[in-house]
Design a protein that fits this description.
- Helix 18 (406-416) links the parallel strand 19 and strand 20.
- This protein has a domain at 532-657: GMP Synthetase, Chain A, domain 3 (2-Layer Sandwich), CATH 3.30.300.30.
- It contains 22 helices and 31 strands.
- It is globular and about 70 Å long.
- The longest helix has 17 residues, at 125-141.
- InterPro entries: Acac_CoA_synth, ACAS_N, AMP-bd_C, AMP-bd_C_sf, AMP-binding_CS, AMP-dep_synth/lig_dom, ANL_N_sf.
- This is Acetoacetate--CoA ligase.
- It comes from Kaistia terrae.
- It is an enzyme of class 6 (ligase).
Amino acid sequence: MTPAIASFPSEQPLWTPSAARLADHPMTHFRAAAAERSGLSLPDHDALHRWSIDDRATFWDLVWDFCGVEGDKGERLLIDGDRMPGAQFFPDATLNFAENLLKVSGDDDALVFWGEERVKRRLSWDELHALVSRLQQALEAAGVKAGDRVAAMMPNMPETIAAMLATASIGAVWSSCSPDFGPNGVLDRFGQIEPTVFFACDGYYYGGKTIDIAAKLAEIVPGLPTVRKTVIVPYIGTAEATASTLANGVSLDGFFSPFLARPVEFAAMPFAHPLYILFSSGTTGVPKCIVHSAGGTLLQHLKEIHLHSGIGEEDRLFYFSTCGWMMWNWLASGLATGATLLLYDGSPFHPNGNILFDYADAEQMTFFGTSAKFIDALHKSGLKPIETHDLGSLKMMSSTGSPLAPESFSFVYESIKHDIHLASISGGTDIVSCFVLGIPGKPVWKGEIQGPGLGLAVDVWDEDGKSLASGKGELVCCKAFPAMPIGFFKDADGSRYHAAYFDRFDNVWCHGDFAEWTAHGGLIIHGRSDATLNPGGVRIGTAEIYNQVEQVADVLEALAIGQDWDSDVRVVLFVRLREGVALDAALEKQIRDKIRTGASPRHVPAKIIAVTDIPRTKSGKIVELAVREIVHGRPVKNQEALANPEALALFRDLPELA
């Protein structure tokens, strides 16, 4: 297993959990409960994980009981457990997702919201119940019933959480995106799922600017002919005016004003009843509509948020996310633990890069979730929150969206907080959760994800389907789990769903990540499999290159592709440089030397080209495949899935690549 460690040499872990921290951690109590139920000793986390995949039925049954799921479990725990897809967890169970997120009542905070520095609000549990009740009644009056779709183009604000809960309480299906999407990007998604009600804001704030979306909505709403009501939620103060211009438009106040709050009614639905429709990025074709179940999402999120992350009633949970990223759905499930959700919408760097850490101190944040890109950008900004903020309440920091570079691990411990559990996590929209994530009882090693989630038979396979103890291969999951999608929307025979995950290896989930095990039992994700580079037939993960080149002080970010060249593939590296820096021979040599010594000679690019921008999805992921298509003169569909589609033009017809 030495190749993995050779990439990030480290004699000591960056952080080790204290005995006091572990003594009262939910995972510790769960392991004791698992030992009692199984009759096994389960002396450590690895033993617990082995049991969780050897006896999945009993494991998930215990998760249900330990986390206090509300519902009728039924008699059978798992049928057809060896089929992927086809396994059915809790086939006789009924529950309601919203009921499980609204178990707490009272005057304590359920939701706290900051909209940059302009808006600060909080809702108690009782106020959230009342808002959900009125929205539920209004949705039912609009004809929404179980199985109908409700779509939202909303900021990450309290009304969005409440509208999702009201939708789920009826047994309807929720789908959301952020208001910065363009009209085509919205219609590519919601146009496929035929929503009955459409929620949208009147505008939003970003980087200190007020952005009105009335003109955008005027294009979108006519393209959604199944929508009976378009509900405009006030944020920038123009909801009434915007609603008046739209067919079937109504302000939020007008939508629910006829209804008084009463106890929320929760429709009991099957465990596998659809809850969410999430979308693939859509940068290489029409986005896939991925349908997730209420029961599977709930159990998986409770396991990750309560057990792996240690979140409970006294905690204040934050994840920097828009409503178009699956981490928003993950964050919302934190309510099921009794935690307070800290919501934020806007730029994380407005006005001076400190606002999220100001928020952490002001609201006694215990869990700080963000992206690898944010941590890297913070590092390059020169800010050091450890010197400017207290952060005494902060126990855990989580990073996802792309692989967290080894230097970013070091930055967190040196410049944010010394005593913190840093968890790099990875999974995705496909499972609305994580395959690999933080392990509370294990040390944190530089550059490594700590391990697989409980109940998930994660492995790394070579191209022939053989398990790899060391070396790079495909990330797979060998046994069924509850958070697998129900399927794709309108994929009647399941062929598209099967092709997406099960064509590569029969009866095994192939996730599309290029990964390897480490000597510590952790994992390193080297990027997406479809973005791996193959110069001379050797597979190289793009993250391996980024980990090196982004340590060069003058490089802000990078993107690597494989260009077809002379009957082979050559590596081309694009770099965005600090303002005023030119890509001269000396800088090129510095970049090549860094990659050669930090990775290998095979990783060294044949070409290095400076660009002024790098295209990204709305959730901040760089789009290597779209750039590869542009470089090869092929069209890129659905450019509205990108946050900055204009950046693609920078890569077209480059003379350096001719």
